Amino acid sequence: MFRRKLSALDYHNPAGFNCRDETEFRNFIVWLEDQKIRHYKIEDRGNLRNIHSDDWPKSFEKYMKDVNCPFKIQERQETVDWLLGLAVRLEYGDNADKYKDSTPDGAKNVDNTAKNAEPLINLDVNNPDFKAGVMALANLLQIQRHDDYLVMLKAIRILVQERLTQDAIAKASQSKEGLPVALEKHILGFDTGDAVINEAAQILRLLHIEELRELQTKINEAIVAVQAIIADPKTDHRLGKVGR
């Protein structure tokens, strides 16, 4: 998952890095700060370098806040990916003259017309800024988290189209005038012996039926949204790519 960025940063073991191994993870963070990010002054890195301390998680959490990492300490993979992205950007800034004229293999023959035809073709789904932005939107809109950030982005698009457009908001703002209901036409099915309680029970039953109808409507909307994502022939969620 991190091999390309680790290789770009000359990490000693890009293929075998395991962020779930606590000791390896802590040593990696120290290496990343010492060699690439260098956010702290050397004399201020003591707590972060003390990887055997019980207070190390607190020091790392403070470090995340200091570098403005948008993820929580429990979101380890996302945090590592974001920090690697930061390190790559800083590395490029330190060596801009070295990389400014470099061109990726195969990029020289790209058809610009076809490239611009689909705006999502140029989207780097592994970019930490992209992931952080999608996660922030998903949290704001209360959308279920998914391992594929592109899937979450498409879910956000569907929600915005269906709920947050001007037409959708205007339709939702329209007041709904209820229709009169004749309770005597609705059989309760049992008798409590008290006319007032019987009428209250009839009202509660009708309200429950209305809630079930609203729930079914929301279920249908969710099914349609999922089908819209899955049925998109231009999306290969396994590869995290868009386009044929």
Question: How would you characterize this protein structure?
Answer:
There is one protein chain. The protein is an all-alpha fold and 244 residues long. It folds into three domains: 1-101, no CATH class; 123-174, no CATH class; 184-233. It has eleven helices and two strands. It has helices at residues 3-8, 22-37, 46-49, 56-66, 76-94, 96-99, 112-117, 128-141, 149-163, 166-173, 195-230; strands at 235-236, 241-242. It has a two-stranded antiparallel ribbon with strand order 1-2. Helix 5 packs across helix 8 and helix 8 (128-141) packs across helix 9 (149-163). The longest helix has 36 residues, at 195-230. It is elongated, with a radius of gyration of 27 Å.
Helix content: 55-70%
Largest sheet: 2 strands, antiparallel
End-to-end C-alpha gap: 23 Å
Oligomer: single chain
Overall spatial form: elongated
- Read across the widest sheet, the strand sequence of neighbours is 1-2
Nearest-integer average pLDDT? 76
> What order do the SSEs take from the amino end to the carboxyl end, as H and E?
HHHHHHHHHHHEE
The count of DSSP E runs of length 2 or more, i.e. the number of strands, is: 2
* Uncertain stretches: 106-111, 113-118
What is the overall number of helices?
Answer: 11
Domain count: the total is 3
The proportion of residues in beta strands is under 5%
**What class, by secondary structure content?**
mainly alpha
CA-based gyration radius? 27 Å
